[in-house]
Structures are given as structure tokens and as C-alpha cells.
């Protein structure tokens, strides 16, 4: 906030000196209401999660009979829920760390592939002139609505039976075993992520200044060169934004993992394991409270660490007038 | 914890393969794109030299090059989309004209069923309520919050708080809110926060999820709770990308925060706002975990995606499930048209 | 993540471990051979007829998870060791929805444990499951009552034997509370209603119930109706109802609903520990009986497997904290109707090793091997009661093996999924939530095509 009176505004202020004080008061009031509103939203948004967090440390019988806020009058604390989640009771399901590794192995390529492919596609749709590009973009955009559930059976059939047309095998079945099944999961996640990724990145890339692109073209830069040296650095925040959302989506996904990774401890991610924790008849659901926090840790770290980069990148990239 | 590293080796190996494949595919693509044009450029140069030497007319720059680039840039995406989404979408449309076991053609029966069954009509109406309210509420709250915490102290922490619901899976979120809405009889101790508040204010505990239409609104709250984080993150980034000089100039003009918001902020973040609204609308059309985990569509709360899942997967009614999916495609048409107009406008400006 | 910071080192580790791994892979091969050597020992004598498939793999998919899945794995361990067949079980809470997807996608498991005969019928009609081998059929016919086998027979073809079972006609109560208050366990419906009135007059709500169960919400209420239906009507009428030979809104079905309603929709009787009638809809079935332990309700009708739902430290026994009595018949002269459920071992592949596993799972050896590990009931008549340790399981097996019992399978599992796991469940939820019997039944009937 600058304290010197800007010359441009002097005239206006001189004609009506009374408003300055009033507006200053109003401004302070405004900022106070603003802070209040922000705090209210933050509190309302946090309380449910906070309740779950407190619940995750409460013993099972209490958890099922009293509200979590009674914890503060009668603090009974246990780590059993976390113990059950982390170390498990079931021999066949193995260690949680195992599933953590699976989730990571699933997530990294499932974020990188759509990110790269969509960036390439979005660039082409925004800056390369070819016939029908707008219609292609609209078509890709519209594919966002295809429900994941309807795509599961055909895609699974593509993996397990290959592609046959009139008795001719165009593509053989994948026939994967054990850890190789990860490839299916990456493939599926990449397919499902592309429409949104192209939509999001196209929005950013198409708004880069035209002059910049034309100048580069005049300098003789080819499309790949422009893409690498100009576009990618400028849309880094958008890339980070997509990376965050795709990371969250893949990390929290259950449906795709169930179908394409299966439930064995070789390939199943954390979510599959957590879904099992409630037991065959769902009677152990107190473990879900702890499970939710175990699985939330990594996404939060990713968000917090990308957030810094995200904001800085956007500021640096604000070349548009 | 006896964590056996050897067990992880094949997985990490697989990850390594995945990353290598990534580097090879993406790097290779860029390399080819770099190498081929420069090869052509060299050949063209040679032609030019030859042409000038022989005095023949200069060959024109080939025009189809743009198309060639586009092809390579788009190939992976288009191929994957064909396999992963286009084929399923066509299949779904075909199945919607067939019976439950996908063996006989039944014409428009499934669509007739959709509009004849009261329960399904209710589902369609609920979906409309969802898709109107969720994008509005989530975007508004996300935007307000993004503006309010912009440049505030502890901004990162404040933003993380709103973002947190996004990091929880839909199922997890639904579980959290089932706790909030939980009900116990009047003579019991409440375990749900909402009823506890009502009781401590002297009211009677209510069965929040049983009474239509309030229950649909309460489920919508869950979706808003999740999506506001998305809106906030994208809009906050957009706000930060408003060039500082514009903001400063406006401030020097003595513009009030209110005017600043409507005259500077809103126009500048319009594209981001559209992304947010469109994305949340589509996510809302497809939402099913929340309904499934909280009420499973009982008490008149079901939405299309949930009903589609039930019909196609649980009841073995592929035809009816597919018809519902096709109806979802239809619902997205207005958004697509809006997007086309948007694109046209952008082209005209650009 | 530190691993990736030093890629060269990571590569080296991965490479080395990869080598070690291929070495162990060879090792597994040889241990399989030694497994075959085992095959001649006395322990392996019962498994002789399953020999000859060493080194083969059979995948099983079911809804059984966690500890119960461990116990299953353990139950066929010796079979695996003796035959060299490796049985790979995967349990998922999304089993019912996932199995059709996998089957349609060409990635079906070798064997699935399917708890819904209606689903078996669907797979059979689409030609996705294989008929059971002659061996399996012979074994099943030898070990299971014919009542059970008809549920996995579609169009005259037999698809697989039952595995685990449960008895649903139970009412849970607290023997301690009953003794203190001087209440006696009712043996007829009328006695049960009289007892309910006595309890209600004493200021306690006699019944507690809960039908919330995630995406399966409503099923405990359908069990109620089926149990009552078996008591107000003959088993034949029950069969006609589940096969849609009589309409769903037949007056006889309405009668059953109304009779169940005299308890479930009676504000005087329910819902102990939770609130009024409507609270039944939102009470999780897992928690529904728990108020019994706090003395807030006296009776809770739920299947034998509810034994696992009591809070830790609750002793389940005839003289313990909680136990169950047989849900009494209205007219004991008409025999002892028993409602139950269970899962069937159905195969999507007909490789010989798959058939061997299928046959083995129908055998008395497996039933006893699994029962010894604990918490298990089966209708298998080779099951030795001495191997069943848990009192409620023992009672269940006794009821199942009792000749005067008239067994009927859970009706909602027999109906097409769109009704049995769809509109019937939802209809019951609406019914509890206040909708009248006629409207509910009409809605279910119109959905059954």
C-alpha cells in the first residue's frame, strides 16, 4: 500500500474530502468482513476433515457411539486404527508399504504420459494451421463426458482379447503377468485423462500472445522448437495444475485400479487395500478413518510442493496484456 | 515392519520401463519432428542452390508441412482416444438400442423406459438440479475465497485448507459427510455434527438424508465442498497472473476493491472461469460415488451416473444403462455449443 | 524418492535384484517338484484324485476379504502343497459389479464364489460359465442336500457346488438380560409378539433393526420379508414368488409385508437405541444389534454371520452376553422353515486343474479343513460338528442338518438382480420410510420384466 497520494487522483479527492475518511473506514471494514468471510469458509471447509482426523485416534467402541467432539471432554486416545491400517491383520494382503509402492508406480507414468501427449496435442490444436482443427478440438473436448464406467469393458477386452476385425488379428492380446499389469493401468489412465488435459492445456496455450509465436516463426523456428523453448516454459503453471489434478485423480482412483490392476498385492494400489480394510461385512469401518489419513498424506505433499512452483510460474508467465 | 525390498524390485523395474518408454516416445517424437524438417530444409536449400545455378524458377515452399506437424503432435492423443473413449462411446450408443443382455435389438425401448418410469424421470430431474447448483456454488465460493486470501498472510496454509477435500477421494468425502449427517434418536447422544448443533440450539434431531428434496441439497453440499478447492486453485492462479501494472494503475486511479473485482479481476480471469465452470459441470454430470456411498440413490436422491452404474453393472441391464449414458452425452451438448461459440470468438479476437 | 535421485545406483540395484529374482524363479520351479514328492505321503492321501496338475495356477475371485480371506487361503494350503496346483484368491468389495465387467471384457477369473443364484443364471444364459465336470457333480450330489443344488442348476445344467452357508432365521438377544428380567425365549410367533409387548410395557423398545448397508441398503429388510413369507405361506408359494409365478403384489406377499410391519413399522417396538421407525433406514446393519449390549433393545433379527459384528469382548454363547434363537414359526406344525444363503463355486474355465479345484471345494475334506480354522458354516453333510467351535456356527450347522428343517435360499438373491438387488431393496427402504405396502409392491412388480 502506497501512502503518497497519486497525482492522478488528487483532483477527485480535493473535490470531496469527506469521502476519503469514509472510504478509508469502509475499506477497513471491508477488509475485516473479508477476513471474517475467509475464516468462516476455511473453518466450515476444515471441520468435517478435522472431525475425521480426531475420530481416527478414537477407540472403536467410542467412535461408534459418541460424537468426535466429545474427545475434548473425554480424551481417549489410541493408535490402534493406524496400527491396523499400517501393519494389517491379514496375512494374505501384505504390508501397506507394498501398496504405497504400487500407488507410486501407477501414478507417476499415469501423470507423465497424458501430460506430454496432451501438451503436444493442445499446441497443435492451438497454433498449427490444418483443416478441421477446431472440430477435432471440440470432439476431444466432448469426449470428457464419456463415463469411465462405459469404457471399462471395451478397454479390458482390448487388453485381453486384442483387436480382431473379421477374423483378422490386427493387434494381439497383451497377455500380461504380475507387475506387467501396470502397463494396462497406465494406458487406461492416460486414455481417460486426455480429454480434460487437452481442454485445460489448450486453454492456456491458445492464449499465449500471437506476436510471440509469429516472431518465432519469422526467426525460422520450427514447431517442435517453439513448443520446447517457448510454449513449455510459459505454460509451466498449467502443466503443474494438470499434474496436481491428474495425480489426485489417479491416486484416489478405485474403479480403474480394480479392473486393470486387480486386487493382488503385486499391482493393487492403496485405494484397493483401503477399500478392503473395512472387512467382508464392513464391520471394521473405524479403520477407514485412519486409512483416509494415510492416503491423504502424499497428495497433500504433492500439492504443497507444487503450489509454490505453480504460483511463481504463473507470475513469470504473465506476458499477456 | 518387515518390508521386503526384493518384492518391490519387479515393480520398480516396471516403473523404470514405463519412464524409459515415456522418454523414448516423447523424446523420440520431438527428435523426429526436429530432424525431419531440418532434413527437408537442407534439401530445399540444395534445391535452391541448384535452382539458382540452373536459372530455373524457385520451388515454392511446400504447404503440407503444417499438416505433417499436426499429425505427429496429435497422433498419440488421437490414437489413445480412439481406443479408450471413441470406441466405447460408439459401443455404448449401439448397446442402448439393445436389450439387457446385449443380444437383441429393441429399438427405442430403453429410451421409452427412461421417460416412462417415474423413478428414472426423478433421476433425470435430480441430475439437472445438480448440474445447475454445483458449478455455481463451487465456483462462487472458490472465487470469493481466492480473492479474499490473495496476498493475505498465511495464504499457502489458507489455500491448503480448502484444497484438502480435493485430496480426499470421493468415497472418503462421502464417508466424512455421512458422519456429519448421522442421526440418533432424541433420547440418544448425537454422533452427527449437524444434529448435535441442532440439538444444542434446542431443536429436534432430524434424519437429514431421508427427506426429499432437502437430501439432494445436502448431497450437493458434499460435491461443492470437494470442487470449491479445484475452483479456488485455478482461479487463484488466474488472479495472480493478472499483470501487476494493470492492478497498480487501477489502484492509483482510486478504484474501490468492489470495482476492482468487477472491472479488472473478472474480465482478466474470464477464460479461467470458463474452464472451471465447464470442468465442474462435467464432473457433476458424471458424479456417482457420492450418491452411491451416502444414500445409494434411495429417498429420491439418485442421479444419472449412479443409476447407469446400477443398471449396467449391478442389474445386468446393459441396454438401459447405456441409454442413460447416451442421455448424459446429450446433456453435455449445450456445454459443447457454448465451447464452440467461445472458440469462434477467440479466433475472431486473435 | 531418494532412489531416483541417483539413477545409476538405482539401476544397479534394480538390475541386481532382477538377477536374484530370476534365480528365485527357478527355485520356485524346483520347490514345485518337491511338492510333488510330498504327494505320496500319508497326509496327501485324500488329495490323490486331484493329482496330475502340478505347477498349474487357478485364480479365484470372490467378495471375501481380510481375515476371512486368510482363512480360506489356509484352508486349501495342504491341497496346494500336495497337488502342486497354486490357488490364487482375490477378494473385492466390488465383486458383484466387477465380475460381469471382467467376464464381458474377456478377463474372467477361473473360479468365482457367487452368492446370488440370480447372477449364476445370468452368466449361464450368456454362455459365460462352464458346466461343472462329472466329478464335481458327483461330489456335490454326495455331499449336499438337493435343496441346495437346484440353486446352481440352470436349464438342467449343474454349474457348481455350494461352499459356505449361513442361516438367516435367527433373532439375536442377550441371555443375561432375558434371565435378569425373567423373559423366556419364544418358540412361536405369538409368544414372540407377547414378549415384545411385555418388553415394550417395561419401557424398553423390544426390537432394533438397521438396513443401511452402502450400495446394498435395504437387504436386511428383504430378509425379514422372506423369513415372514416362509412362515405365512408354504415353501411352494415362496418358490412361486421368487420365480415370479405369482406377481410381486400378490395379496399373499402383501400379507407378509404387513405382518413384518407389525414389528418393523410399530413405533412401540422399534427402534431401540436409535430412534423411531424411520431410523431403521439409516442405521447401518453392522450397528443395528449393538444396543442389545447396552440394554437399549432386546431383540434383533439377523443372520448367523452377525456374530462377527458385536463389539470386541462380547461373548457369543448360549450363556454369554449375546446369543440367537431360531426365528419362530407361526404354525410349528408346518415344520421349521429356514431361510439361508451361501456362495457357489462357479467356473469360467474348464481346464482340468480348475475342475480339480472345483471338485475339491465341494468335498468334505475342504469343508472340515475350513471349519477347523474357525467361524464357518456349511451345508456340506460331511462337515463334522466337532470341527465347528463357535456356538452360533454349531447351532447353524445343527439347523441345516436337521431333517425337519425346510430350507429356502434368500429370495432376493434368486430374483433377477434388477429386482432382487434393485427394486426390492429400494422398495423396502421406501416402505420403512413410510410408503404404504400396496404402492411399494406395485412398484417392484412393474420393474420385474
From TrEMBL, chain A:
GO annotations of cellular component type: plasma membrane
UniProt-listed InterPro entries: MetI-like, MetI-like_sf
Alphabetized UniProt keyword annotations: Cell membrane, Membrane, Transmembrane, Transmembrane helix, Transport
Ranges that cross the membrane: 34-54, 104-128, 135-159, 186-205, 226-248, 254-275, 287-306
Coiled coil location: none
Pfam families documented for this protein: BPD_transp_1 (PF00528)
Location(s) in or outside the cell: Cell membrane
Topology in membrane: Multi-pass membrane protein
UniProt record, GO biological process: transmembrane transport
Signal peptide start and end residues: none
Region named Disordered: 1-24
Polar residues composition-biased segments: 1-22
Every ABC transmembrane type-1 domain range: 100-306
Source superkingdom: Bacteria
Family from the record: Belongs to the binding-protein-dependent transport system permease family.
Designated name of the protein: Carbohydrate ABC transporter permease
From TrEMBL, chain B:
Transmembrane stretches, start-end: 12-33, 68-90, 128-149, 161-180, 217-239, 269-288, 322-340
Domain spans labelled ABC transmembrane type-1: 124-341
Membrane topology listed for this record: Multi-pass membrane protein
Keyword Membrane (UniProt): yes
PANTHER family reported for this sequence: BLL4140 PROTEIN, DIACETYLCHITOBIOSE UPTAKE SYSTEM PERMEASE PROTEIN DASB
Family: Belongs to the binding-protein-dependent transport system permease family.
PROSITE patterns linked to this entry: ABC_TM1 (PS50928)
Predominant location category: membrane
Any GO BP: transmembrane transport
Localization in the cell: Cell membrane
Name recorded for this polypeptide: Sugar ABC transporter permease
UniProtKB/TrEMBL annotation, chain C:
Residues that span the membrane, as ranges: none
Pfam families: SBP_bac_1 (PF01547)
InterPro entries: Bact_solute-bd_prot1 (IPR050490), SBP (IPR006059)
Keyword Signal recorded: yes
Cited SUPFAM superfamilies: Periplasmic binding protein-like II
Top-level taxon in the UniProt lineage: Bacteria
Signal peptide: 1-25
Keyword vocabulary terms for this entry: Signal, Transport
Family: Belongs to the bacterial solute-binding protein 1 family.
Name of the protein in its database record: Carbohydrate ABC transporter substrate-binding protein
